[in-house]
Each structure stands twice: as structure tokens, then as C-alpha cells.
Amino acid sequence: MNDSLKKAAETARHINRQDAERQAKQKQRETIEAIVEIQGKLHERAAAYMNLMLLGGYAGAFTIWSNTANNLSDKANIAVGLSLGISISVYVFFEIYKMIFTSLKFNRLRKLINSDLPPEDFLKQTLALYKRESKPDPTFAPVWMGVVLVALTSAIVAFILLFYN
Known about the structure:
Elements: H1 2-68, H2 74-113, H3 119-134, H4 140-164
Helix pairs in contact: 1-2, 1-4, 2-3, 2-4
């Protein structure tokens, strides 16, 4: 009788362990879904706002230029076109750089999400990844500052040329 009680208790512990593991896996899936959803929405909204502002600025600049091009000298038209072209080209190339940079970060997270780790290890590695990823990349800020400086300066030069002439 004592052996049967031990077996029943062992079976109950085994079932409880399996149930706990199932619940932990479910929590892990829910956490993954929440992380992916939050990151996706944040990235989409920030990118959409920034692109809208830049699109408005470039659209305005090209509209002003197209309406005043006949009144500008050939040299002024070339300078405005060159300035706007440099500005928009630098911005587009930076967006490509940023897309690659961001994709690499998301791929590291995706690799972790697709791993078949136990819940405790998954959470530990997720926290470690976020800790590493939250540190600023030493190359990103200088590149961004250079892009802003070149794109903004050349756009301002174009606007000055448009309004001066």
C-alpha cells in the first residue's frame, strides 16, 4: 500500500510538472506575441511620422522649385537641383542603411523567438538580448549626425537659392 501511495504521489508530481511546463510554454508564446506586436507598432508609427514629415518637406521644396524654375537663372536651377538631389539622395541612402541596421537587430530577436528554449532560458536570453540591444551602437549616432548635417545643409542651401533668386 505504501508503494502505491508513493507511485500515486510521483504520478501527481509528474502531472503537475507537465502542467506547469505547458503553462510556462503558453506564457512564453504570449510574451513573444506581445513583444513582436509592440515592436512592430512602435517601429511602424515612428517610421511613418518621420517619412510623412520628410515627404512634406521634399514635396514642398520641389513644388516651390517647379513653380519658380522659369524665373531662376540656369546656374541657380542647377544649384537648386544639385542641392535637393544631394539632400534626398543622402536621406534615401541613410534609410537603406537604417533598414539594414534595424533588420539585423530584428533578426537577432527572431532567431531567439524561433529557438526551442525552455521558458526560463528563453526569458534570460531575451532579457540579455534587450540589455545588449538597448546600448547605443557607437557607429549609428555619428552616421546619423553626418546624414542630418549633409541632408539638412543641402536642403537649406536649396531653399536659400530658391528664395534669394
